Amino acid sequence: MTQKTTWSIKALDTGTSVVEGSVLTYLRHCGEQVTIPRVMWVLEGPTTIVVDTSVNPAGKPHEFMGESFERSQAQIPENALKAAGVAAKDVEFVILTHLHWDHAGNCDLFPDARIVVQEAELRYAIAPGRFFRRGYLSPESGWPLTPGYIVPNLTTVRGQHDVAPGITVVPAPGHTPGSQAVIVQTASGAYCITGDAMMTYDNLESDSPPGYHVDVDASLDSLDLLRSRSSLLLPSHDYTVFRDRPVTLIAP
Q1: 248: Cα separation from own chain's centroid
Q2: Which CATH code of 2.40.50.100, 3.40.630.40, 3.40.91.80, 3.60.15.10 fits the domain covering 8-251?
Q3: What's the whole-model pTM score?
Q4: Are 226 and 204 in contact (CB under 8 A)?
Q5: Which residues of the chain fall below pLDDT 70?
Q6: What number of other Cβ atoms are within 10 A of residue 71's Cβ?
Q7: CA separation (Å) from 246 to 60, 79, 103, 229?
Protein backbone atom coordinates (compact mmCIF):
# COMPACT_ATOMS: atom_id res chain seq x y z
CA MET A 1 0.00 0.00 0.00
CA THR A 2 1.31 3.46 -0.92
CA GLN A 3 1.90 5.62 2.14
CA LYS A 4 -0.12 8.83 2.16
CA THR A 5 1.87 12.08 2.09
CA THR A 6 1.24 14.17 5.21
CA TRP A 7 2.28 17.65 6.24
CA SER A 8 2.73 19.71 9.39
CA ILE A 9 1.19 23.18 9.75
CA LYS A 10 2.64 26.12 11.64
CA ALA A 11 0.88 29.45 12.18
CA LEU A 12 3.12 32.53 12.24
CA ASP A 13 1.94 35.77 13.88
CA THR A 14 3.34 38.56 11.69
CA GLY A 15 1.45 41.61 12.92
CA THR A 16 -1.51 42.94 14.86
CA SER A 17 -4.42 45.16 13.86
CA VAL A 18 -7.55 46.52 15.50
CA VAL A 19 -10.58 46.54 13.20
CA GLU A 20 -14.28 47.24 13.51
CA GLY A 21 -16.17 44.00 14.16
CA SER A 22 -18.43 44.07 11.11
CA VAL A 23 -15.36 43.91 8.86
CA LEU A 24 -15.02 40.31 10.06
CA THR A 25 -18.67 39.28 10.27
CA TYR A 26 -21.23 40.86 7.96
CA LEU A 27 -23.59 43.24 9.83
CA ARG A 28 -22.55 41.80 13.21
CA HIS A 29 -20.52 43.38 16.03
CA CYS A 30 -20.91 46.83 14.48
CA GLY A 31 -18.91 49.43 16.39
CA GLU A 32 -16.95 46.84 18.39
CA GLN A 33 -13.15 46.95 18.24
CA VAL A 34 -11.55 43.57 17.59
CA THR A 35 -7.84 42.74 17.73
CA ILE A 36 -6.73 40.41 14.94
CA PRO A 37 -3.48 38.77 13.80
CA ARG A 38 -1.90 38.90 10.35
CA VAL A 39 -1.08 35.23 9.81
CA MET A 40 1.42 33.43 7.59
CA TRP A 41 1.30 29.64 7.41
CA VAL A 42 4.19 27.22 6.95
CA LEU A 43 3.55 23.72 5.63
CA GLU A 44 6.36 21.20 6.01
CA GLY A 45 6.51 17.76 4.42
CA PRO A 46 8.42 16.53 1.36
CA THR A 47 9.18 20.22 0.76
CA THR A 48 8.34 23.57 2.40
CA ILE A 49 5.35 25.71 1.44
CA VAL A 50 4.29 29.13 2.71
CA VAL A 51 0.65 30.24 2.54
CA ASP A 52 0.22 34.03 2.35
CA THR A 53 3.04 36.50 2.92
CA SER A 54 1.55 39.19 5.19
CA VAL A 55 2.03 42.95 5.15
CA ASN A 56 4.97 44.59 3.45
CA PRO A 57 6.19 47.60 5.47
CA ALA A 58 7.32 49.50 2.36
CA GLY A 59 5.34 52.70 2.01
CA LYS A 60 3.26 51.85 5.11
CA PRO A 61 0.29 50.23 3.31
CA HIS A 62 -1.71 50.12 6.56
CA GLU A 63 -1.65 53.90 6.67
CA PHE A 64 -2.76 54.05 3.03
CA MET A 65 -5.63 51.68 3.90
CA GLY A 66 -6.54 53.56 7.07
CA GLU A 67 -6.23 50.46 9.27
CA SER A 68 -4.16 50.17 12.41
CA PHE A 69 -1.14 47.91 12.18
CA GLU A 70 1.65 47.12 14.61
CA ARG A 71 4.54 44.69 14.32
CA SER A 72 7.15 43.73 16.90
CA GLN A 73 10.63 42.54 15.96
CA ALA A 74 9.47 38.95 16.50
CA GLN A 75 6.54 39.53 14.12
CA ILE A 76 8.69 40.68 11.20
CA PRO A 77 8.09 37.93 8.61
CA GLU A 78 11.80 37.08 8.23
CA ASN A 79 12.12 36.72 12.02
CA ALA A 80 8.93 34.70 12.36
CA LEU A 81 10.17 32.34 9.63
CA LYS A 82 13.47 31.91 11.48
CA ALA A 83 11.58 31.17 14.70
CA ALA A 84 9.70 28.49 12.75
CA GLY A 85 12.99 27.00 11.59
CA VAL A 86 12.44 28.01 7.97
CA ALA A 87 14.88 29.60 5.53
CA ALA A 88 13.19 31.52 2.71
CA LYS A 89 15.56 29.93 0.17
CA ASP A 90 14.20 26.49 1.07
CA VAL A 91 10.57 27.40 0.31
CA GLU A 92 9.53 25.69 -2.93
CA PHE A 93 5.96 27.03 -3.20
CA VAL A 94 4.12 30.09 -1.93
CA ILE A 95 0.33 29.90 -2.13
CA LEU A 96 -1.58 33.19 -2.02
CA THR A 97 -5.18 32.78 -0.89
CA HIS A 98 -5.86 36.17 -2.49
CA LEU A 99 -4.02 39.37 -3.34
CA HIS A 100 -5.09 41.88 -0.73
CA TRP A 101 -2.39 44.08 0.85
CA ASP A 102 -2.20 42.06 4.07
CA HIS A 103 -1.88 38.64 2.40
CA ALA A 104 0.47 39.18 -0.53
CA GLY A 105 2.93 41.85 0.56
CA ASN A 106 6.21 39.97 0.92
CA CYS A 107 6.46 37.76 -2.16
CA ASP A 108 9.92 39.17 -2.84
CA LEU A 109 11.21 37.22 0.19
CA PHE A 110 10.85 34.05 -1.89
CA PRO A 111 12.56 34.63 -5.26
CA ASP A 112 13.26 30.92 -5.73
CA ALA A 113 9.71 29.74 -4.99
CA ARG A 114 6.83 29.17 -7.37
CA ILE A 115 4.09 31.59 -6.22
CA VAL A 116 0.60 30.27 -6.90
CA VAL A 117 -2.57 32.34 -7.26
CA GLN A 118 -5.88 31.87 -9.06
CA GLU A 119 -5.93 33.44 -12.52
CA ALA A 120 -9.29 35.07 -11.75
CA GLU A 121 -7.77 36.77 -8.72
CA LEU A 122 -4.81 38.24 -10.60
CA ARG A 123 -7.07 39.55 -13.36
CA TYR A 124 -9.33 41.31 -10.86
CA ALA A 125 -6.47 42.64 -8.73
CA ILE A 126 -4.95 44.55 -11.64
CA ALA A 127 -8.24 46.32 -12.50
CA PRO A 128 -10.69 45.86 -9.61
CA GLY A 129 -13.94 47.67 -8.99
CA ARG A 130 -13.49 51.20 -7.64
CA PHE A 131 -14.31 50.33 -4.02
CA PHE A 132 -11.70 47.55 -3.89
CA ARG A 133 -8.74 49.30 -5.56
CA ARG A 134 -7.09 50.27 -2.30
CA GLY A 135 -7.26 46.76 -0.83
CA TYR A 136 -5.24 45.45 -3.75
CA LEU A 137 -2.86 48.43 -3.88
CA SER A 138 -3.79 48.31 -7.55
CA PRO A 139 -2.30 50.65 -10.17
CA GLU A 140 -5.48 52.78 -10.12
CA SER A 141 -5.61 53.10 -6.33
CA GLY A 142 -3.05 55.86 -5.94
CA TRP A 143 -0.58 53.52 -4.22
CA PRO A 144 2.85 54.75 -5.37
CA LEU A 145 4.69 51.40 -5.49
CA THR A 146 4.38 48.21 -7.51
CA PRO A 147 2.07 45.80 -5.65
CA GLY A 148 4.03 43.12 -3.77
CA TYR A 149 2.50 40.28 -5.76
CA ILE A 150 3.89 41.49 -9.09
CA VAL A 151 6.97 39.27 -9.17
CA PRO A 152 8.61 37.22 -11.98
CA ASN A 153 7.90 33.89 -10.27
CA LEU A 154 4.11 34.39 -10.00
CA THR A 155 2.16 31.45 -11.48
CA THR A 156 -1.59 31.30 -12.11
CA VAL A 157 -3.88 28.28 -11.87
CA ARG A 158 -7.51 27.78 -12.78
CA GLY A 159 -9.84 26.08 -10.35
CA GLN A 160 -8.93 23.17 -8.10
CA HIS A 161 -5.25 22.32 -8.41
CA ASP A 162 -2.84 19.95 -6.67
CA VAL A 163 0.21 22.03 -5.77
CA ALA A 164 2.04 19.04 -4.28
CA PRO A 165 1.00 15.58 -3.03
CA GLY A 166 -1.36 16.24 -0.12
CA ILE A 167 -1.74 19.98 -0.88
CA THR A 168 -4.76 21.10 -2.93
CA VAL A 169 -6.06 24.60 -3.63
CA VAL A 170 -9.80 25.04 -4.18
CA PRO A 171 -11.63 28.18 -5.33
CA ALA A 172 -13.48 29.95 -2.51
CA PRO A 173 -14.81 33.17 -4.08
CA GLY A 174 -16.91 35.83 -2.40
CA HIS A 175 -14.45 37.79 -0.32
CA THR A 176 -12.69 38.38 -3.62
CA PRO A 177 -13.50 36.93 -7.07
CA GLY A 178 -10.47 34.63 -7.10
CA SER A 179 -10.01 33.68 -3.45
CA GLN A 180 -8.77 30.16 -2.85
CA ALA A 181 -8.44 27.90 0.18
CA VAL A 182 -5.75 25.30 0.82
CA ILE A 183 -6.55 21.71 1.82
CA VAL A 184 -3.63 20.19 3.75
CA GLN A 185 -3.37 16.48 4.52
CA THR A 186 -1.87 15.95 7.98
CA ALA A 187 -1.50 12.98 10.29
CA SER A 188 -4.48 14.42 12.21
CA GLY A 189 -6.72 14.72 9.14
CA ALA A 190 -7.39 17.20 6.36
CA TYR A 191 -7.09 20.82 7.49
CA CYS A 192 -8.38 23.74 5.45
CA ILE A 193 -6.56 27.08 5.46
CA THR A 194 -9.46 29.27 4.46
CA GLY A 195 -7.89 32.63 3.64
CA ASP A 196 -10.45 35.39 4.11
CA ALA A 197 -13.29 33.12 3.02
CA MET A 198 -13.47 32.65 6.80
CA MET A 199 -11.81 35.39 8.83
CA THR A 200 -12.77 34.14 12.30
CA TYR A 201 -14.52 31.14 13.83
CA ASP A 202 -17.50 33.46 14.37
CA ASN A 203 -18.16 33.30 10.61
CA LEU A 204 -18.69 29.56 10.97
CA GLU A 205 -20.59 29.63 14.25
CA SER A 206 -22.99 32.41 13.23
CA ASP A 207 -23.17 31.40 9.55
CA SER A 208 -22.15 34.94 8.64
CA PRO A 209 -19.81 35.77 5.76
CA PRO A 210 -16.92 38.19 6.14
CA GLY A 211 -18.09 41.78 6.12
CA TYR A 212 -15.59 42.78 3.44
CA HIS A 213 -16.65 40.96 0.28
CA VAL A 214 -17.51 41.39 -3.40
CA ASP A 215 -20.39 38.87 -3.35
CA VAL A 216 -22.31 37.91 -0.21
CA ASP A 217 -24.03 34.89 -1.78
CA ALA A 218 -20.77 33.51 -3.12
CA SER A 219 -19.23 34.06 0.32
CA LEU A 220 -21.87 31.87 1.96
CA ASP A 221 -21.51 29.24 -0.76
CA SER A 222 -17.77 29.14 -0.13
CA LEU A 223 -18.32 28.69 3.62
CA ASP A 224 -20.55 25.72 2.80
CA LEU A 225 -17.94 24.31 0.43
CA LEU A 226 -15.16 24.55 2.98
CA ARG A 227 -17.33 22.92 5.65
CA SER A 228 -17.89 20.03 3.25
CA ARG A 229 -14.17 19.64 2.54
CA SER A 230 -12.90 19.65 6.12
CA SER A 231 -14.03 19.83 9.73
CA LEU A 232 -10.65 21.34 10.65
CA LEU A 233 -10.88 24.91 9.40
CA LEU A 234 -8.19 27.53 10.02
CA PRO A 235 -9.41 31.14 9.69
CA SER A 236 -7.16 33.96 8.60
CA HIS A 237 -7.61 36.53 11.39
CA ASP A 238 -8.43 34.75 14.66
CA TYR A 239 -6.05 34.65 17.62
CA THR A 240 -7.67 31.38 18.69
CA VAL A 241 -5.31 29.51 16.34
CA PHE A 242 -2.33 30.57 18.48
CA ARG A 243 -1.13 28.85 21.62
CA ASP A 244 2.36 30.31 21.32
CA ARG A 245 3.59 33.33 19.41
CA PRO A 246 5.10 34.11 17.01
CA VAL A 247 4.87 30.41 16.01
CA THR A 248 2.28 27.77 16.89
CA LEU A 249 2.43 24.20 15.66
CA ILE A 250 -1.12 23.43 14.55
CA ALA A 251 -0.71 19.89 13.23
CA PRO A 252 2.51 17.88 13.68
Answers
A1: 16
A2: 3.60.15.10
A3: 0.96
A4: no
A5: 1-2
A6: 20
A7: 21, 9, 17, 28
